[in-house]
Amino acid sequence: MKVENTQVQMRKGILEFCILEIISRGEVYASDMLDELTAAKMIVVEGTLYPLLTRLKNAGLLDYTWVESTSGPPRKYYTLTEVGKEFLEQLRQTWLEVVASIEHITQKNKAS
Fold first, then answer.
1. Do residues 15 and 52 make contact, with C-beta atoms less than 8 angstroms apart?
2. How far is CA 75 from each of CA 9, 31, 42, 81, 105, rounded to the nearest angstrom?
3. How far is CA 12 from the centre of its chain?
4. Over its length of 112 residues, how does the chain's per-residue pLDDT go in tens digits?
5. Could you tell me which residues come within 8 angstroms of residue 27 by beta carbon, excluding any fewer than 6 positions away?
6. Looking at the domain that runs over 3-111, which CATH code has it been given?
7. How far, in Å, CA of 1 to CA of 53, rounded?
C-alpha cells in the first residue's frame, strides 16, 4: 500500500468543503479556485473541479453568473446560495469535530 494513495483520498474527502469555503468569500472564477487550491497543496485538476462544481450547483448549493471578459469568452463566477451557506456552516462544525477527534487520538499516542 502506498501512502500517496491515502493522502490523495484524504484530500478528496475535504475538497468539497475547501471549495465551498473559497466561494463563501464572494464571487470566484474557477481558475482562481484552482490557483488557491494548488497553492494550498490541494492538488486538483480541471477534470476534478468542474464536475464537482456542477454537482454542487445541481444540489442547489451554488449559483453562477456569466461576466463578459475583455480578454476572451465570458467567465462563469460562482457564489453560494442561502442553502449553500447553511450547508457550509454545517460542514464547518463537522470539521471542528473531526479535528478535535484526530487531536484526541494523536495526543494519546504522544502521551504513551
1. yes
2. 30, 10, 23, 19, 45
3. 9
4. 899 888 878 888 899 999 999 999 999 999 999 999 999 988 788 888 999 999 999 999 999 999 998 888 899 999 999 999 999 999 999 999 999 999 999 998 676 5
5. 65, 77, 78, 79
6. 1.10.10.10
7. 31
Please name which of 78, 82, 75 lies closest in space to residue 60, comparing C-alpha atoms. 82
Q: What pTM did the predictor assign?
A: 0.87
Residue 65: closest CA among 32, 31, 27, 36: 27
Q: Using CB atoms within 10 A of its CB, is residue 18 exposed (0-12), middle (13-18) or buried (19+)?
A: middle
Sole residue written with cell 456542477 = 54
**Which DSSP string do the residues of 24-43 spell out, in sequence order?**
TTS-EEHHHHHHHHHHTT--
Residue boundaries of the structural domains of the chain: 3-111
